Amino acid sequence: MRTFGVEEEFLIVDPVNGVPLPLSAEVMRLHGAGGPSAGQVLSAELHQEQLEVITHPHGTLAGLAAEILAGRAHADSLARTAGARIVALATSPLALTPHPTRNERYDALVEKYALTAREQLTCGLHVHVSVGSDEEGVAVLDRIRSWLPPLMALSSNSPFWNGRDSGYASFRTQAWNRWSSAGPMEVFGSARAYHSLVADLSATGVVVNPDFDARLSARHPTVEIRVSDVCLDPRDTVLIAALVRALVETAAREWESGKEPDGVPAIILRQGVWMASRWGLRGELLHPATHRPDTARRVIAALHDHVRDALEESGDGAYVEEALERILENGTGAARQRQAHVRHGRLADVVTHAIALTHQEPAGHHPSGNGSPSWTWKPLAEAVV
């Protein structure tokens, strides 16, 4: 079974007024003082107002879910010591001027990318899935391209930007796509072609490590899927990870069987990215099979059907079915942020509400015998019209 892990980026915020605080260095100091026994992997990010929590590779959904919850709790305990909290918001609802992290790498990024880098206080969810070789990895990248916008829609969690409602479900995606190499790519065809393109990009002097929506990891034998917002609810993080692993497994099997990838142009995929960013699950999405608008419910059902066999074989099928139904019924993180804003009327209260959701223990969390969490909701089939 393929192993998988996640990287979650979080904001460090004032628990009273909701404003992000430049405390990553202090949180990292406290983490280091705890020694290796802390068990969690934390990293600073581009701005001092954010922090990344990285899981180890896991073979089961239950193991990954447990570390996701533990990582959030550990990071939050350190932030509390520093007088702050950790919150899973992909953008800050409140306006601020971020403080870049000072080191050689980030200093160079800010110098080169100017305002794009200085404003890039965004938090994503990156999912790594193991592959057997670069050739298999590139074959996977070529065959999952059309299925990534629905993942973005499911994870959408950034409706507010610079103190106002952006109108988008994932405004992080709009901000992220200002990077020069961000977005969907054409079919590569081979590992040699992939590495040749990466080398050519590096030779331009603009790009060091490309920000493709999905790429080969530069450090691990994995593919790295990077389209998702950090998820407000940890159960959604688990869902996205399960879907990504199933997409990778399904794509690898297609490659092994000789099935050619969909050659749809990247510019069409970019329209699907835009639709998912704009509407989340509240409007139409591009259907991955037809590349024509369809209801979000039917598109999510198509994604589910596409990876169903891989999900069942990994033991993740029941959890994914139940979690998809929950999101379709209750809404994404973006919807829940907007609901909190309507109820309370202040963006600071949106952050306070989000802090509670970031760290909640999912009801009925008892790992089942098949290695998946046993959180229970109605089947997805009941929600598809």
From TrEMBL:
Keywords tagged on the record: ATP-binding, Ligase, Nucleotide-binding
SUPFAM superfamilies xrefs: Glutamine synthetase/guanido kinase (SSF55931)
Catalytic activity: L-cysteine + L-glutamate + ATP = gamma-L-glutamyl-L-cysteine + ADP + phosphate + H(+)
Pfam family, one: GCS2
Molecular function per GO: ligase activity
Xref: HAMAP family: Glu_cys_ligase_2 (MF_01609)
PANTHER family found in the cross-reference section: GLUTAMATE--CYSTEINE LIGASE 2-RELATED
Protein name: Putative glutamate--cysteine ligase 2
Organism of this sequence: Paeniglutamicibacter kerguelensis
Species lineage: Bacteria, Bacillati, Actinomycetota, Actinomycetes, Micrococcales
